[in-house]
């Protein structure tokens, strides 16, 4: 994980921008459920009325509404309203002030509204209780039940407002506004302020069992009723409110869209930039590896690390910046919002989170070991694929198609089996999460239904709570999804880091020396060499000198160390004993760039690059003229096939030189080294793919036209090195003899045996 974050460090400014955009996006996402709740509770249920104070009141209502108010509340009430004509208008417009007034008058207005909506049966019961103590009216007590509201009003010389509504069961019920009666009784002294206060206290005790949302809804219903009576257009208020809230939601949605696009763009850019940087670092590192490091990391593994592994990190980085950073923001924000709803159902969220974490940890613990194995299996499949594709002609020649198919099938089945296992485990993730989410929704709805019935919660608040709960659950879902992706990318990051932290065994000296002369004098002084980790030397006490204008040949049996010896010259490996000097300087004290500038190297296997013949010949010297590359081609005996091509030197070369023969590829590789005009030319068994006639012609041209370079030739055929100035006979990592052909024929039994065997094998004659 730390390695992934380390790669992000150079792009911290983009990540800061992403975090800011995610905060904006989260703010929008967390705001929308509250707007939805307001639209349901305020816009639909409360007709768009947001406060319990009427905007406009009739004079009678203004006076009678003070019935249950304390003296302090009455003073505030009178300061809040002013009379304009026959109506009283609310002066308060500031939202904060209106919220304070809602809290102040909630109890009084709730009582007021209840007394204006008394059921007929309760009304008659109140009348019976009030006349029971009056001897003159007592005989009428038994007749009250059979009287209408208007008849009772005539009897008491009062006018009661009554109206008919349907109850929850659809039954029509008559309601009566008893406040005028109570107000009159107070005015006439039949009811004292103390009685009213006592009545208020009794009702306040019952209010404790009623939810605050129900109390507030009752207050809003009172305000709506008063506004309607005063001629206020409630439908317009509702419509304006819905348009206003809908417009805000639309604006927030657009803000979320812009933020999400910005996050996606920046996250993708950071991911792509990290991928580019890692590919560059890997390439630069691998280019600095010696053969020892190349042997440690297989080519197939390096390809996988620089492609598949980097792609994993790139993808996870882009996704992580969008999801992993967003998840805690939305999760914490959702928890705060859930707490602010005051719904009292936080325990449901906690339960859901615990279940999710347990479920995910179970899946991850089963699947994670397989993810680590999978990367190794990808390496193995790439290795098999590369070997089969590069050796296809050999496979066909030996009729090994079936065997290699089985070998590929085995590697493929191992990888597929592991992938299927992890995929099957992970298929439980989404259904499991959906089950938990829907279970949470059902549980919230069930608990909310009871709270709504008890009046402690509104429908809109329930909707908002469900949305916040889903946001919190989704936040944990995002984090758990990343908990699977990140470790897998972590494995890839470890593999990449392993390459980047591997120090090349062959490195430039901190303060390299510069060659003062460029003659090409190469000298081996008692050189020993053994491969990293090996116990025994491959080369021991190698001591000889190569001079300009002279050819040094190396011959010996297979595995005697010839190629290893010449690989020490360009520092593909470093000597483990003794030293190699070039023009008097230890090659380890010279920068590798300068050293290799002095050398033209032709490996055993000719390697060409995609491009043209000309681009390949200029590979070692980009500024080589057309005359230079033509001369090099003539020396290497390559003109005979180049000139037959339609485009000649501009003829295309396919990847790896697959569109030219082995001999043509070898001659082009030799021409490339000659075109470089290096001071030291090294041919590592480079003439083996040439026929003897071409071999002889090439060596003749080389001797005549390349006279100022030191030439080192590793050869299997004696005919190739017959006229060399000095020949080194290698045997078991040591120089058994050194001299010219004639000298060695007399002094070296090994050389003499090689020469005689080749004479007999190919019919050579001196």
How does this structure look, described?
Helix 5 crosses helix 10 (212-229) and helix 13 runs antiparallel to helix 15. The chain has a 6-stranded mixed sheet with strand order 12-15-16-9-17-18. It is α+β, with helices and mostly antiparallel strands and 766 residues long. It is rod-shaped and about 160 Å long. 62% of the residues lie in helices and 11% in strands. The two termini are 71 Å apart.
Give the helices and strands, then pairings.
Elements: H1 2-8, H2 12-45, E1 56-58, H3 59-64, H4 71-80, E2 81-84, E3 87-90, H5 95-115, E4 118-119, H6 120-131, H7 149-156, E5 161-166, E6 172-177, H8 179-188, H9 193-207, H10 212-229, H11 234-287, H12 291-296, H13 299-323, H14 326-341, H15 346-390, H16 392-397, H17 401-427, H18 429-454, H19 459-501, E7 522-529, E8 539-546, E9 551-556, H20 562-567, E10 577-582, E11 585-586, H21 592-597, E12 599-602, E13 611-612, H22 613-617, H23 626-635, H24 639-642, E14 652-653, H25 662-675, E15 680-684, H26 692-705, E16 710-714, H27 718-721, E17 726-731, E18 734-739, H28 741-747, H29 749-762
Helix pairs in contact: 2-11, 2-14, 2-19, 5-10, 11-13, 13-15, 13-19, 14-19, 15-17, 15-18, 15-19, 18-19, 23-25, 28-29
Number of helices: 29
Which band does the percent of strand residues land in?
Answer: 5-15%
User: What class would the helix/strand composition place it in?
Assistant: alpha+beta
The profile of the biggest β sheet is: 6 strands, mixed
What shape does the CA trace take? rod-shaped
Radius of gyration: 47 Å
| First-residue to last-residue Cα separation | 71 Å
Share of helix among residues? 55-70%
Provide mean pLDDT, rounded.
81
Counting DSSP E segments of at least 2 residues, the number of strands comes to 18
Uncertain stretches: none
Q: Give the spatial strand order of the biggest sheet.
A: 12-15-16-9-17-18
């Amino acid at each position: 994980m730390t390695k992934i974050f380390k790669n992000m460090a150079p792009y911290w400014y983009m990540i800061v921008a992403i975090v800011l955009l995610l905060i904006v996006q989260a703010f929008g996402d967390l705001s929308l459920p509250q707007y939805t709740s307001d639209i349901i509770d305020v816009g639909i249920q409360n007709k768009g009325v947001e406060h319990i104070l009427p905007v406009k009141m009739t004079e009678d209502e203004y006076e009678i509404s003070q019935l249950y108010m304390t003296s302090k509340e009455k003073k505030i009430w009178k300061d809040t309203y002013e009379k304009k004509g026959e109506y009283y208008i609310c002066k308060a417009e500031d939202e904060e002030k209106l919220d304070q007034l809602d809290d102040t008058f909630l109890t009084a207005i709730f009582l007021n509204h209840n007394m204006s909506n008394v059921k007929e049966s309760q009304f008659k019961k109140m009348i019976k209780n009030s006349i029971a103590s009056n001897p003159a009216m007592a005989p009428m007590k038994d007749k009250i039940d059979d009287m209408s509201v208007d008849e009772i009003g005539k009897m008491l010389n009062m006018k009661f407002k009554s109206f008919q509504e349907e109850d929850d069961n659809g039954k029509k019920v008559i309601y009566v506004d008893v406040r005028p009666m109570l107000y009159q009784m107070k005015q006439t002294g039949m009811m004292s302020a103390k009685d009213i206060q006592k009545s208020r206290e009794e009702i306040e005790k019952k209010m404790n069992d009623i939810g605050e949302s129900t109390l507030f809804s009752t207050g809003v219903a009172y305000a709506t009723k008063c506004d309607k009576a005063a001629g206020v257009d409630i439908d317009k208020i509702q419509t304006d409110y819905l348009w206003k809230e809908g417009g805000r939601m639309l604006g927030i949605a657009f803000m979320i869209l812009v933020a999400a696009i910005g996050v996606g763009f920046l996250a993708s850019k950071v991911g792509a930039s990290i991928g580019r940087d890692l590919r560059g670092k890997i390439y630069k590192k691998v280019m600095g590896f010696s053969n020892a490091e190349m042997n440690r990391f297989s080519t197939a593994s390096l390809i996988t690390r620089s492609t598949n592994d980097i792609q994993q990190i790139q993808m996870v980085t882009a996704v992580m910046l969008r999801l992993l950073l967003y998840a805690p923001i939305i999760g914490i924000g959702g928890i705060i919002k859930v707490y602010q709803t005051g719904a009292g159902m936080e325990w449901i969220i906690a339960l859901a989170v615990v279940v999710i974490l347990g479920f995910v940890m179970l899946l991850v613990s089963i699947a994670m070991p397989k993810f680590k194995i999978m990367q190794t299996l990808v390496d193995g499949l790439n290795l098999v694929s590369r070997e089969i594709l590069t050796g296809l002609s050999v496979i066909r020649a030996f009729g090994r198609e079936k065997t290699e198919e089985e070998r590929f099938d085995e590697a493929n089945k191992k990888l597929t089996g592991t992938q299927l296992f992890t995929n099957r485990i992970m298929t439980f993730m989404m259904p499991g999460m959906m089950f938990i989410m829907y279970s949470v929704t059902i549980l919230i709805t069930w608990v909310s239904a009871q709270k709504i019935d008890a009046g402690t919660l509104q429908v809109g608040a329930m909707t908002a709570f469900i949305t916040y709960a889903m946001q919190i659950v989704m936040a944990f879902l995002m984090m758990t999804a990343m908990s699977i992706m990140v470790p897998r990318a972590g494995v890839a990051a470890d593999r990449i880091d392993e390459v980047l932290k591997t120090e090349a065994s062959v490195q430039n000296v901190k303060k390299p020396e510069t060659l003062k002369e460029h003659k090409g004098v190469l000298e081996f002084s008692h050189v020993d060499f053994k491969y990293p980790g090996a116990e025994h030397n491959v080369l021991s006490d190698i001591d000889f000198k190569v001079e300009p204008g002279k050819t040094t040949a190396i011959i010996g049996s297979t595995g005697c160390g010839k190629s290893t010896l010449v690989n020490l010259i360009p520092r593909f490996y470093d000597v483990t004993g003794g030293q190699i000097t070039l023009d008097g300087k230890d090659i380890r004290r010279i920068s590798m760039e300068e050293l290799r500038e002095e050398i033209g190297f032709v490996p055993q296997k000719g390697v060409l690059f995609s491009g043209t013949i000309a681009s390949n010949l200029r590979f070692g010297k980009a500024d080589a003229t057309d005359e230079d590359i033509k001369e090099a081609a003539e020396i290497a005996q390559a003109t005979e096939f180049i000139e037959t091509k339609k485009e000649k030197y501009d003829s295309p070369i396919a990847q790896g030189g697959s569109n030219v023969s082995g001999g043509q590829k070898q001659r082009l590789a030799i021409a490339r080294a000659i075109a470089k005009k290096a001071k030291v030319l090294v041919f590592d068994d480079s003439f083996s793919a040439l026929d003897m006639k071409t071999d002889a012609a090439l060596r003749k041209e080389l001797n005549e036209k390349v006279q100022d370079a030191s030439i080192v030739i590793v050869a299997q055929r004696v005919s190739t090195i017959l006229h060399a100035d000095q020949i080194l006979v290698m045997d078991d990592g040591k120089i058994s003899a050194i001299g010219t052909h004639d000298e060695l024929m007399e002094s070296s039994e090994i050389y003499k045996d090689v020469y005689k065997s080749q004479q007999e094998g190919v019919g050579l004659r001196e």
